[in-house]
Amino acid sequence: MTERRVPRVAKGKRPQYFADPATDKLMAIVVSLVGELSVTRDRLDALERLLETNGSLSRQQLDAIQFDDDATSERDRQRKDYISRVMRIVTMELQQTNEDGATPSFDEQMKSLLR
What we know:
- It is a single chain.
- By secondary structure, the chain is mainly alpha-helical.
- It has helices at 21-54, 59-64, 69-86, 88-97, 106-114.
- Helix 1 runs antiparallel to helix 3.
- It is flat.
C-alpha cells in the first residue's frame, strides 16, 4: 500500500506584527533563510571537523557524525552569535523598547521575535 502525504497548511489568519503586511512577509522570508543558512553552517562545520580528523569522508560519515559536549557547546554558541548578528537591527529595537532598561537575553529576544 502506498502512503499518501497530506500537505501541511496552517489554518487561520497569519498574525501581523508590523504595520505593513509586506514587512511581515519579508521578515518571514529572512527568518526562513537564516534557518536554512544556519543548518548549512552546521553541516559545513561537521564536514570541516571530519576532514580535519580523517582527511577524507563519505556522505554517510557526514550524516552519522556525533559530537561531544564541547563541540556541541561551541556549535550552539556559534549559532547564537550568527543569529544575533543577522537579527541585530531587530534586537536593538527590542532593547530600546524595554521599559526597565534591562537587556533581554538572546533566548528572550528570540521568543519575543517569534511571538
